[in-house]
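F.,

This is the one I mentioned.
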């Protein structure tokens, strides 16, 4: 029941933000923004409370595959409400809220099998940092796809009121690189904490996750260096970002799904 409530609130907020960017609703911008803010904040608070109660259990700390997706949805909604302060980014924010609603629907799904051993606080910190890094980079991936769609519409010369939902390409690129920088720092910290806190990151059931995470880290590092020293921008940078994100997604979700749902064990 709570999934439906959260989904409903997020969709109301997302639709209201989208409508505020369309010319037919220009006379109702303030009312639409007020509705979006109230519904978005209520959804975010309820989502966070429910997820907290599911993750922090009496026995300690648990994070199923479904709750992982839901946590990423929580980050999407938080990002959406933050960037909606910028008028040109409200179209993107509406899309993020709709995706957050879909992610919230997975709350409680795919329960993880019991861990072989109790997790130490160091391992819990490592998992949370890793999840934060992946969540941030997920936001960047959505911005990258958004930029690709916008670029193709511009090259096709498609002029329509719906174009108001797209921010200028320069704004999108700045947002993408900002997210990439923060996400790269979080991923670097996650990898470092893994080497420090996890007994053997190259154990049989972790080697794929470790190697793929390192490869993704290298790709994001190349992207940021290319931007800083060679002025990379446009499709090349966007596609490189998406390759890095795809590899990271395979490292986390692909590896974890096989471990938990196929092999019936945890990654720790």
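My design for it:
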């Amino acid at each position: 029941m709570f999934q439906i409530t959260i989904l409903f609130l997020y969709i109301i907020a997302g639709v209201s933000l989208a409508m505020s960017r369309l010319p037919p609703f220009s006379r109702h911008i303030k009312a639409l923004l007020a509705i979006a803010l109230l519904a978005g904040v209520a959804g975010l608070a309820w989502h966070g409370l429910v997820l907290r109660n599911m993750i922090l259990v009496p026995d300690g700390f648990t994070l199923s595959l479904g709750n992982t997706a839901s946590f990423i949805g929580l980050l999407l909604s938080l990002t959406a409400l933050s960037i909606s302060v910028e008028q040109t980014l409200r179209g993107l924010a509406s899309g993020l809220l709709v995706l957050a609603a879909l992610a919230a629907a997975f709350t409680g799904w795919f329960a993880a099998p019991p861990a072989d051993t109790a997790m130490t606080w160091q391992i819990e910190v490592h998992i949370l940092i890793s999840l934060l890094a992946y969540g941030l980079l997920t936001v960047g991936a959505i911005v990258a796809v958004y930029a690709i769609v916008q670029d193709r519409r511009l090259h096709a010369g498609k002029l329509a009121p719906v174009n108001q939902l797209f921010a200028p390409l320069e704004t999108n690129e700045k947002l993408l690189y900002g997210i990439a920088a923060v996400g790269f720092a979080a991923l670097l910290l996650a990898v470092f904490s893994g080497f420090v806190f996890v007994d053997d990151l190259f154990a049989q059931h972790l080697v794929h996750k470790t190697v793929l995470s390192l490869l993704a880290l290298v790709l994001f590092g190349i992207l940021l260096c290319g931007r800083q020293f060679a002025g990379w921008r446009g499709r090349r940078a966007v596609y490189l970002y998406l390759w890095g994100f795809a590899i990271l997604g395979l490292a986390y979700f692909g590896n974890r799904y096989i471990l938990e749902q196929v092999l019936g064990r945890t990654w720790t």
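Residues 259-265 have pLDDT under 50 and may be disordered.

Talk soon.
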